[in-house]
Structures are given as C-alpha cells and as structure tokens.
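Researcher: Next sequence.
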Amino acid sequence: MTAKPLAVAFAASLFVCLASMYVNYRAYQETRYLDWSYKIHGGEITVELSPGWRAVHIYAMRPEERDSHKLEFSPVILAAALLALTLAGRAALAKLSTGDPLKDGLLLVVGYTVIFFGCRAIMDLLDEWG
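Model: Next structure:
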C-alpha cells in the first residue's frame, strides 16, 4: 500500500470539509442556520452538526423570551468528518484509481459532492414529509 492514494484522499477530504465549513459559516451569518448539516430536533431546541460546526438553537417558549442561536467550532466533528471521508475516499481509490493523483482527487471531490447533495435532498424530503 502506497501513501499516495491516502494523501490524495486526505487532500480531497480536507478540501470538501473546508468548503463545507465556509458555506455553512456564510449561511449562518445570513440566516442563523447551517445549509449543509444534520439536524437534531427536540422540544424547544434544535442542534445542527456539520464538519467543523455545531449550531444550537433554543426557541423561546414565553412571549417575553427571545430565541437563542449559537455557533461553535467543533474540532471533534471536523476530525471525525475528515477521517470518515478520508477512509471512504481511500477505499474508493482502491477500486477506481486512475493512477493520476489530480484525476483521482477530482474524482473524489465530484463523488463527495454528489453524495452530499444527494443526502441533503433526502434529508429535505424527510423533513418535508416526515
């Protein structure tokens, strides 16, 4: 096993995680919600998890209270996402590698993008119909 496919998978995973962090940060600044996240709903609280971010929304239950929104950097979630994507990318390259690191990296980024947008569409449908 060479280190090159692992390095390519790590680089592609890091790119996707950083791009996701940027998109989510910009969305939070505009709307107070993350665009690409896994949402956990419960009572008067919603927690959103995404690579590098954890957003907590506490909703007011009385008229005199106000909603609370908090965004935190989460290195643990970032590391877990980076590790999971790197391992999945390495496994994909074991079967689909072209031998060219640039093409392999592009292949992984496109694959991650398709998976993320597919998961987002499924989660939106579940939120809409579930």
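Model: The chain has a mean pLDDT of 88. Helices lie at 3-31, 75-96, 101-129.
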